[in-house]
What does this fold into?
Amino acid sequence: MKVGVLALQGAYVSHMEAFSSLGVEVLEVRIPEDVEKIDRLVIPGGESTTISMLLDWNGMRSPIQKSISEGMPIFGTCAGMIVLAREVLDGREDQAPLGAIDITVRRNAFGRQVDSFESDIEIVGFEHPFPSVFIRAPVVESIGEGVEVYAKVDEKIVLCGTDSILVASFHPELSNDGRIHEMFLSMEPSGAQR
Ligand code: GLN
It folds into this structure.
């Protein structure tokens, strides 16, 4: 299995290290041809407005959208979650998300006074809490049919997904805990065309 990490901007190196430490082959994804070489994709944290703009500049939007429609498993963390959402609140006007998962996200939703924080959170199916790092994190304000919620903080959804898409408000790649990366690796490609 080859995992691709979108390497246009943001925290992609830590994701690559997290997968490598699980013994998985991992590639940087920068140009359309790279998407052909991978079995699943990660869109990392960073700045969603910049990632969204660079997707278009690098001609990456349509190859990624094609992979989404073919059911390739995709994992978005923080800015990556925003990029994968159907709708973005408090976004920039020219910010066009991929609409891969039927969620509405609000950017920077924990407010300036709590810019960044760490919290041990309960996750559905995990025996022990997961140490989570939130950095100017978005939250999921609403979900559509077929989206399952796996974790909340202060009643706000911070981890959810479908059969082939997983999105986190926080940065699992910055914790020394591979369980969410393993959860992503266990997801099957979705058979249905979207
Ligand atoms: N607030 C950032 C954004 O919009 C996300 C921050 C992050 O990825 N750590 O895109």
